[in-house]
From TrEMBL:
The gene is rplW. One of its GO terms (molecular function) is structural constituent of ribosome. The keyword rRNA-binding applies. HAMAP family: Ribosomal_uL23_B (MF_01369_B). GO terms for cellular component: ribonucleoprotein complex; ribosome. GO terms for biological process: translation. This is Large ribosomal subunit protein uL23. It comes from the Bacteria. It comes from Paracoccus methylarcula. One of the early assembly proteins it binds 23S rRNA. One of the proteins that surrounds the polypeptide exit tunnel on the outside of the ribosome. Forms the main docking site for trigger factor binding to the ribosome.
Length: 98
C-alpha cells in the first residue's frame, strides 16, 4: 500500500507526552488527527505511511479551553487524538520525522 497525499492530511502530528510514552510500551502510538477523520481512515493512513499493521484505533476529542490571550478572551481549538495499537512486532519511532 503506497502513501497517498490524503494520508498526510489525516494525521497532523505525533503526540509526545508522558502518557503517550507509556502507551508506546504496549505497542501503542498517539497521533493528533483532523477532527473529521474516521477510525478506518486513520488505520489506512498509519499502515500506508509507516508500513505497519494496525490492531486497533481508539479516538478521543479534547474540547478547547477558554484562555486569555494578551488580556483578550480566546478559545483553544478542539483536538482529536488517535490512540493506535499496533500488531505484535511492529513499531513506529515517533522521534524521527515522516
Amino acid at each position: 500500500m503506497s502513501a497517498k497525499p490524503e494520508h498526510y492530511d489525516v494525521i497532523v502530528k505525533p503526540v509526545i507526552t508522558e502518557k503517550a510514552t507509556l502507551t508506546s510500551e504496549n505497542n501503542g502510538v498517539v497521533f493528533q488527527v483532523t477532527n473529521d477523520a474516521t477510525k478506518p481512515q486513520i488505520k489506512e493512513a498509519v499502515e500506508a505511511l509507516f508500513g505497519v499493521k494496525v490492531k486497533a484505533v481508539n479516538t478521543t476529542i479534547t474540547k478547547g479551553k477558554t484562555k486569555r490571550f494578551r488580556g483578550q478572551l480566546g478559545r483553544r481549538s478542539d483536538v482529536k487524538k488517535a490512540y493506535v495499537t499496533l500488531e505484535e512486532g511492529n513499531t513506529i519511532d515517533v522521534s524521527t520525522g515522516l
